[in-house]
Amino acid sequence: DQQVKQNSPSLSVQEGRISILNCDYTNSMFDYFLWYKKYPAEGPTFLISISSIKDKNEDGRFTVFLNKSAKHLSLHIVPSQPGDSAVYFCAAISNFGNEKLTFGTGTRLTIIP
Amino acid sequence: GAGVSQSPSNKVTEKGKDVELRCDPISGHTALYWYRQSLGQGLEFLIYFQGNSAPDKSGLPSDRFSAERTGGSVSTLTIQRTQQEDSAVYLCASSLAWGAGQPQHFGDGTRLSIL
Predict the structure, then answer these.
(1) A1 lies within 8 A of chain B by CB
(2) C-alpha–C-alpha distance, residues B42 and A22, integer Å
(3) Which chain B residue is nearest to residue A34, measuring alpha carbons?
């Protein structure tokens, strides 16, 4: 039962353009969402997060949007840079559950120079 | 270094052997988590520690898996009688405190290969 879904296993974007990574969830108890970035042979690195009381959080080139009614969030990267090429994981957690961070299966983003 | 440290970085062993994986969290981080990532899969939660106690062991795949944490710091994940399906990257993470708002900082993982 995949509670956090990233339906696009890969995405290619031209350098300088906007990258949009999508994530859907099924558990309505999730109230905090995070994005992690992972390079090969390294552990995931925290990128940005959003609480369910917000619908947008911005940090530099990275913006996360949350649509609670649709149980959907997205990560926008603009402008995309070659160093952004990595696997991006969406994760969700409930403050009222067992604090287990549930991850999606990841989307491999490739930025084309 | 200041990050989460895991050892060994790679481990190859024969089916049926026991393996022990080690995690050194960031100093001062009270929460510690173990995950595994099998080929082509997302990160699968295994267990977490708040201090030395593990309130939730539900993610451990079988009774061959166990984990402990002593002194509120180093943790070991032990897999007994390894099977080929145990082959994966085992990731450890720590956070300053236990809670949804605390981002988890990951180590680089231990790549376990069972022959």
Answers:
(1) no
(2) 15
(3) B103
